[in-house]
Design a protein that fits this description.
globular, magnesium, isomerase, cytoplasm, 434 residues, two-stranded parallel ribbon, TIM Barrel, Xyl_isomerase-like_TIM-brl
């Protein structure tokens, strides 16, 4: 065990007037909203990598966090890290966690050693999960940090690297299955290119597509019935990523016949880097039928890169959860905090307080979204804007041909007048629910 969080009591709901840094003001796990408890709507998960594996470095400076499990290079310290992680999960009352293989086990001298380290820590997790009731939302493989992945994993020009990626994902998927994981995520951190001068784009896309087909086949082979997810991300770290955004991923899935098998795990920060809003990506995934899970964080809009900060903007979060509620809510997915402390926030209590603030922000946003959905005025305004398309004549026009549509105008009976989109009034309406 570890005393890393010594003296910090479990966080409780205290209501809007609660004092102090470590009390929920909006997140009451048992509060029923739209027919089910908040905990079942939000399905919070803590990210093992940012909370416990990250050492506080950035592109201009190294480690600032000094934790009892540093350096992260042997199984003894990996187990100390696990002790601290499950203590944090207990304090926060989060029902789920997520991990990459490299977060939870030290890198071995060989693949076999790394794999054995992973399965050893999986066995260590088992009793802790049973004791705390914390479950695995999803597992994934880190196919981007080690130098072997510098030219990609599935898209690598070297077939031996492709094979190494296959072995790594096979082990991680089996570990996820053993822990009862509800999803398995693939994030192609290096699946892209820096320059077309040395890149065969068609070959690399075909390799990535075949790799994903293999992943789905292996899930069937081992009886993994969770959801397979791809996490879109533009640019960073490579100049062009093959998984740029939801639309790009859907086109990729269609190309390889996987659009009904694979869904997306959408991150707020990645949506912004792609030039979209979070709610745009969620709405598109909902319309395409591939909305799976989310990574909740925020970017610093002045920095222009993926800063992975804890969410604190209730209006933004409200619009995101509105789209999720419109989709019917999560099934196997949930709200994973892919967010990290600032490198100057050194104290253990900072990690707890950051999650408390993020969970409260999400709860406030979801409740506002639920009020907006229940009230129905936003949907009514949207329906009114498109009401003309409900007429039999308009529907017939869509079923007909270009000449038939043109005839409405050519006959001289149509002289349309533009109508207001009422954007400002709708923005004001949204603010009433916050």
């Amino acid at each position: 065990m570890t005393d890393f969080f010594a003296g910090i009591d479990p966080v409780r709901y205290g209501g809007p007037e609660a004092d102090g840094d470590l009390a929920f003001r909006h997140y009451d796990p048992e509060e029923v909203v739209l027919g089910k408890p908040l905990k079942d709507h939000l399905r919070f998960a803590a990210a093992y990598w940012h909370s416990f594996a990250w050492e506080g470095g950035d592109p201009f400076g190294g480690q600032t966090f000094l934790r009892p499990w540093h350096p992260q290079d042997d199984m003894g310290r990996a187990k100390i890290k696990a002790d601290a992680a499950f203590e944090m999960f207990r304090i926060l009352g989060v029902p789920f966690f997520c991990f990459h293989d490299a977060d939870v086990r030290p890198e071995g001298a060989t693949f076999a050693e790394s794999r054995d380290n992973l399965f050893e820590i999986v066995d260590y997790f088992g009793p802790k999960m049973e004791e705390t009731g914390v479950k695995l939302l999803w597992g994934t493989a880190n196919l981007f940090s080690h130098r072997r992945w510098m030219s990609g994993a599935a898209t690598n020009p070297d077939p031996d690297i492709f094979a190494y990626a296959a072995a790594t994902v096979k082990a991680c998927m089996e570990a996820t299955h053993r822990l009862g994981g509800q999803n398995y995520v693939l994030w192609g951190g290096r699946e892209g290119y820096e320059t077309l001068l040395n890149t065969d784009m068609g070959r690399e896309r075909r390799q990535a597509g075949r790799f994903l087909q293999m992943v789905c086949d292996h899930a069937d082979r081992i009886g993994f019935d969770g959801t397979i997810l791809i996490e879109p991300k533009p640019q960073e770290p490579t100049k062009h990523q093959y998984d740029y955004d939801v639309a790009t991923v859907y086109g990729f899935l269609k190309d390889f016949g996987l659009e009904t098998r694979v869904k997306v795990n959408i991150e707020q920060g990645h949506a912004i880097l792609a030039g979209h809003s979070f709610e745009h990506e969620l709405a598109l995934a909902r319309e395409l039928g591939i909305l799976g899970s989310i990574d909740m964080n925020r970017n610093d809009y002045q920095s222009g890169w993926d800063t992975d900060q804890f969410p604190n903007n209730v209006p933004e979060v409200t619009l995101a959860y509105y789209e999720i509620l419109r989709a019917g809510g999560f099934t196997t997915g949930g709200t994973n905090f892919d967010a990290k402390l600032r490198r100057q926030s050194l104290d253990p209590v900072d990690l707890i307080a950051a999650h408390v603030g993020g969970m409260d922000t999400c709860a406030a946003g979801l409740k506002a979204a639920a009020r907006m959905l229940e009230d129905g005025r936003l949907e009514a305004a949207r329906a009114e804007r498109y009401a003309g398309w409900e007429s039999a004549e308009a529907k017939a026009m869509l079923d007909g041909d270009l000449a038939g549509a043109a005839a409405r105008v050519e006959a001289g009976g149509v002289e349309p007048e533009p109508r207001s989109g009422r954007q400002e009034r709708l923005e004001n309406l949204v603010n009433r629910y916050l």
